């Protein structure tokens, strides 16, 4: 009897608030409330997937899908199931989540992108600070600033995860992708060769002479013609060899082998570095694999494994050595191209910055402010903000 009464008593109060509560489903109040819950509907067996109208639907459009997940393993797992289902319809699926789940996502045959952050640290912070306002102990320990840094890292990772890299799975898809990109650029430039001169004529003012309008139209035509030839040259000399080298290098992925990454080509120096590494590894792996792959296959699967290993060795010899030979020129070419383009991008950024400075000076001068007045106002604002922040931190309400 006492045991039954004790079951109905509320649990003891917590000495420290940690954001969790205990619910006793066997208590008297829980059983009373359960009587008001309606009965669930009768169970019906799930439909056979082969009879489902969704399973029979033909999806002609293949999508690039990024699923971003922040949380524990239990938060990630349902989206892996969703990603696998989407992948079964031909879509390309990438799971963007914490670094510690890389092997978990990779074992599901889905793409993985690390966004940073530590889920255990995040959960511990949430338990320690269940409310909106963090505790004084968290403020003193610097937890808030660390979480800001972590959230900034995760937001940056989530943003970058949308950049779907154009992976080279084989030389045919890589050449097709490169060729399509080149043709698209050439078609756009060819259209501009007609549209840009016409646009110059349309924008000409009545005061402009016929010769001035003609010069503008011819200048626009010349720019578009230069872009057309640039696309053609860059595609044939730089992009196509690079795509072939990458496609041949990635062929082992087709039969389940890992392909070592030599880094990203960012400039001329990295291009020569990647080209050299790819040449050394491609030649050594291609030649040695002709002997090691059959022996490894025979050790694992006997005669059938020996035959498979021989096929892998011959294919590796052809693809890896060819990738090495082409890559010794293609990777440096890609790096040199990026180094040539980089100064023009830097000039654009500098031009934007100078325009912003000019805009600021114009706004201050239009309001009758001098540089000294602007600096004085800024210092007053910083001093006022720092005093206000100190007062808020002292009260425990600073987030």
UniProtKB/TrEMBL annotation:
<dbReference type="Pfam" id="PF03033">
    <property type="entry name" value="Glyco_transf_28"/>
</dbReference>
<dbReference type="InterPro" id="IPR050426">
    <property type="entry name" value="Glycosyltransferase_28"/>
</dbReference>
<protein>
    <recommendedName>
        <fullName>Glycosyltransferase family 28 N-terminal domain-containing protein</fullName>
    </recommendedName>
</protein>
<dbReference type="GO" id="GO:0016758">
    <property type="term" value="F:hexosyltransferase activity"/>
</dbReference>
<dbReference type="GO" id="GO:0005975">
    <property type="term" value="P:carbohydrate metabolic process"/>
</dbReference>
<feature type="domain" description="Glycosyltransferase family 28 N-terminal">
    <location>
        <begin position="65"/>
        <end position="153"/>
    </location>
</feature>
<dbReference type="InterPro" id="IPR004276">
    <property type="entry name" value="GlycoTrans_28_N"/>
</dbReference>
